[in-house]
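Field reference: sequence -> structure
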Amino acid sequence: MTGSSSGNIELVPLTAAFVPVAAALHVQGFEDCWDEDALLRLLDVPGTFGLLAFQPGDSAQNGADIPLGFVLIQSVVDEAEIITIVVASAARRMGVAKTLIAGVEERLCANGVVRMLLEVAVDNDPALNLYQGCGFEKVGRRKGYYDRHDGRKVDALVLERVFAQS
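Structure field:
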């Protein structure tokens, strides 16, 4: 995928050149955020890829592109897992995550992947609503999966999306 768009949201492959941008975005979404080194190591894992969403800058005004979010995926044979997905605080509820998931689905289906999984904290209502709206269904629960900074342990739901085969 060289670049695709949905409205004013563009998607490009997440490469090493964009890792500093991705690390800055990850801070906005997670207590235990990943730094540049961690993201680079993940991108080096076979079967792993990412997509970066951005709003193109106004070239007439010499405006810079605005990073909106990214997703990291690991695929093995015909299954894939969303390792992380994050949207910039200022860009939430604008369709960025849905655009990222649609871009991932397009690439995975083109590569014969039939199933995508993810984990999400049971107390993350915005993410749960997003995933339900994107066709994910609950297939499991992991007790005490997430450690919060306040010492709480929070369960994770395991969600699955099966792609229709043509």
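Note: The helical segments are 19-27, 36-43, 96-110, 125-133.
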